[in-house]
């Protein structure tokens, strides 16, 4: 059986994320360990970290995935934003170590006009390398593909691969594949199928055994739209058949499948989970 889950809220306190995940029938889940919309993070009290780890052990859920907050940009042109981004990534790795979270997902940022793409890429490599060097523990950084919006770094599989290859600490670098982002970037999962598109990922980004997390999202935009807007499973461009194709592709069955589907009146998380469970059983 593959592992399915959601991005869940930590509102109230970190341990509450575990009960929310349980309520929605998750085998795995993703969180922000702090507010994703501000730079500053309150330290995690040791008692809170212990309560989180205890709740997790009791629940039997795992792995937990942490997602980097929104403000950091590891390709930033402005030196102060770049420095803060490295600080935040290091801090987030330390928080993962404190909570015993094995994976930290990060986007690869946006380069500035003056810097251009190549310099942006070099900055990302240096930023991640420094954060790994300066952090405690063994948490792996997962490089996530993006919708390849303007000035993006990490918008193509090749781009993700160049960054992964340049980072020597291979046991702490893996990948997160977002289905919405891939198709929005132009990799037509619906047209070509999972075997072909993940084959490209394997050849251009890195081996599929280093792929640890799938962000399982349908999409509001179409192929090559560069639109990072997620949709409920089966209700977007990808549709149920493509979601099924991804869920049943054997070479990625070791991954944690995390849904980042919208919160609205159309569908609850429980309903998306029911759809995912139904599609995960190959027909
Ligand atoms: Zn992401």
TrEMBL record:
GO biological process, one term: base-excision repair
Positions bound to Zn(2+) 1: 67, 107, 144
Organism of provenance: Methanocorpusculum parvum
Protein name: Probable endonuclease 4
Gene3D superfamilies registered for this protein in UniProt: Divalent-metal-dependent TIM barrel enzymes
Domain of life: Archaea
Cofactor note: Binds 3 Zn(2+) ions.
Binding, Zn(2+) 2: 144, 178, 215, 260
Pfam families named among the record's database cross-references: AP_endonuc_2
MF terms (GO), sorted A to Z: deoxyribonuclease IV (phage-T4-induced) activity; DNA binding; DNA-(apurinic or apyrimidinic site) endonuclease activity; phosphoric diester hydrolase activity; zinc ion binding
Xylose isomerase-like TIM barrel domain residues: 19-268
UniProt-listed HAMAP family: Nfo
Keyword Nuclease attached: yes
Obligatory cofactor(s): Zn(2+)
Family of this protein: Belongs to the AP endonuclease 2 family.
Binding site for Zn(2+) 3: 181, 228, 230
């Amino acid at each position: 059986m593959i592992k399915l889950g959601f991005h869940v809220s930590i509102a109230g306190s970190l341990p509450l994320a575990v009960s929310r995940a349980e309520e929605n029938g998750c085998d795995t889940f993703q969180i922000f360990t702090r507010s994703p919309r501000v730079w500053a993070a309150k330290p995690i009290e040791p008692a809170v970290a212990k309560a989180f780890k205890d709740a997790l052990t009791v629940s039997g859920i795992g792995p937990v995935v942490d997602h980097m907050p929104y403000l950091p940009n590891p390709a930033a042109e402005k030196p102060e934003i770049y420095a803060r981004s490295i600080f935040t990534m290091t801090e987030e790795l330390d928080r993962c170590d404190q909570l015993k979270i094995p994976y930290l997902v990060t986007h690869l940022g946006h380069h500035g006009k003056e810097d251009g793409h190549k310099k942006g890429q070099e900055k990302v490599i240096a930023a991640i390398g420094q954060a790994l060097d300066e952090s405690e523990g063994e948490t792996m950084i997962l490089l996530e593909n993006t919708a390849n919006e303007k000035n993006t770094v990490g918008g193509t599989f090749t781009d993700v691969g160049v960054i992964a290859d340049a980072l020597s600490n291979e046991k702490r670098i893996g990948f997160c594949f977002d289905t919405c982002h891939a198709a929005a970037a132009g990799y037509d999962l619906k047209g070509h199928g999972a075997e072909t598109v993940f084959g490209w990922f394997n050849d251009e980004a890195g081996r599929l055994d280093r792929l640890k997390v799938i962000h399982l999202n349908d999409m509001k935009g179409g192929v090559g739209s560069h639109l990072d807007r997620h949709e409920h499973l089966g209700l977007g461009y990808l549709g149920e058949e493509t979601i099924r194709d991804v869920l049943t592709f054997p070479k990625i069955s070791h991954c944690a499948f995390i849904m980042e589907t919208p919160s609205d009146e159309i569908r609850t998380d429980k309903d998306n989970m029911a759809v995912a469970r139904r599609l995960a059983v190959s027909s």
